[in-house]
Each structure stands twice: as structure tokens, then as C-alpha cells.
Amino acid sequence: MSAAQNIPTDVAHLTPQWLTQTLREHGHEVVVEHADATLVGSGQMAASYRLSLRYRNPTALPTSMIAKLATGSEEHRRFGSGAFRNEIRFYRDLADTVRAPVPHSHGAVVSESGSEFVLLLEDLAPARQGDQIAGCTVEQARAVAVAAAGLHGPRWNDQTLLDNTLSLPSAEDRELMESVLAPMAEVFCDRLTDRLTDLERSAVAWLVATAGEWLITPVRHFALLHGDLRIDNVMFGQDNAVTLVDWQTITPGNPLRDIAFLLSTSLPTEDRRACERNIVGDYHRALLEHGVRDYSVEECWQDYASSLIQAPLIIVFGCGAAQPTQRGDTMFHTMLTRSATAINDLVPGVLG
């Protein structure tokens, strides 16, 4: 039986035997004799563990890896199956086609249903995960935005991105999204009812009223998006060196959706107000360095402002998809507070 037919959904089942088989199926002639696992990160959809490995034979493989796998109930895993398939596809097929800093993959398996997967990734220690609740500095946000240009620029308006599994949103996508958005928004507001201000409730109401039309509005430019580009999904090394992680929400679309989501949810409000134009300008210059042409900095800014709806959209869907936790609720509320203020600042009047 191959590793893909026997995929663990509990860290206890990441045994030396299973790891040996998986690594061998990915071209690594090793025997894992021992593996210890320690929980790391704060994933909302899947769990990540640091594996300390001992091999029987000499190998170039590292003795420490990060294992990411689908955990929780079958229902929860089934709900996340599309996201799990996305991440496997990114590491298998797309990571080498962009210039964004991403972890190296030592192995990637997913079940036919998508409800079970395991990724064996480069351990980025001593780099540290960003903290979405605390937010980030201006220089950290700038570093992430410039790194994202390395994702967007190489596949800018690349028609080969659009195939049977990745496509720009259609009328059917709009219908599906609208069928679940209003109920999920209601659940979101009920779950956080004691925390929400009038402005935040208005942002959710605006999302429900306008997201469908926004989703299918033709885009002038498209690229491969991360889709959930925020500080919790970034590892920071020395001198603000960044690595982008958590590739479960990849999709083609207006690339400024990533930048709008990043800045509006990860920067404290006063820092965002003071520096966002400059950061968007730095991102634009990085795009040009990756070969993008006929795209002005003013167009880039307009796309940024018109993409701010990405934040409440991901917040509402992310909250609904994640297993409820105290940190998760605080994080989603903090993100909504920041993004609602950004929308109110840059798209005057839409929130009343």
C-alpha cells in the first residue's frame, strides 16, 4: 500500500515506517529509525508538527522537518478538502514557477477525496511565525509585500494558469458563494456578537451585499494569488527575511487582493494610514523588476483600494471553516476591526 492510501490524520500515526515509505516514494533512499513530534504554529485548518528524525543510513535530508496534516473530525476535514488539495498542488506543480520565498517540500501526499494530506516541509527554525493579533511593523509589511511581487510577477496575465482546476471566478462560483456567504456571515456575527462595533457590522453587511458582483467583475490583470496573505502565514528570519507559508487558498485573480488583505489586516491602523501608499509603491517597483509592464503605480493603488473587500470575505469564511478557539475568535475580530477601518478610510461612504 502506498503512502497516499494510508494517510495519517493523527500525529501518532506519523510513524518511522510511514515516514520511511513516504520519503522513499519521493526519491529519498532513507530509513527513518525514530521520529519525535512537537506541535508548532497556530493553524486554523490543519496542524503542523516539528519532526526530529533519526536515520539508519547517511542522507542529505535534514534531521528536522515540519509535518503538516489534516486533523480533526471527518466532517471538518471534508470541509477543508479543496484547500488541502490546493496546497499539495502548489508545492508539487507551482512553487518552482514563481519567485516567492517558500519552504522546500520533501514530500507531499493527498487522498483522492482531499480530506487527508501530509506535507513534509523544510524546517525554517529559528525563523518565527508572525502574530496576527499583535500585528507587524511597517518594515515587516513592506518585506512581505515585496516578496509577494515574486509570486505575482512571474505569472502575470499567464493564461496557462487557467485550467480545469484553477480559473477566474464564474457566474456559477458567484452563485455558490452567495448561497453560503449570508448564512456564514450570520454565524460570524452571532459568534462575535458581544465584540462587534457598528462599523464592523456594517463591513460584514457590505460584504454580503456586494461580494457577488465584485467576485465576477472582469479584471484587467491577474496572477496567482496566495489568497490568505497575512502575518500569521509568514515566517520571519533575520533582518526581516520572509518565507510565505500556508498555500491552501491559491487562486488566479487581481494580485492586489493579496496586498490589500495583508496591509489592512496586519498593520496597526495608524501605521497603515501613514505608510500604505509607500508600501504599495515598493510592491509596484518589485513587480517591474519581475518583468511586469504597462502597469502604472496609480493603477496599482486603485486596484489596492478596490480589493479591500478581500479582508472581510476571508475573515468570514475563515472563521466559519476554522475550529472555534479563543485565540481564533480574537484574531478574526482584530482583523475585522483593522480592515473595516481601512475600508472606511479608502472607500468612503460604503459603510454608511
TrEMBL record:
Pfam families: EcKL. Transmembrane segments: none annotated. Residues 119-293 form the CHK kinase-like domain. It comes from the Bacteria. This is Phosphotransferase.
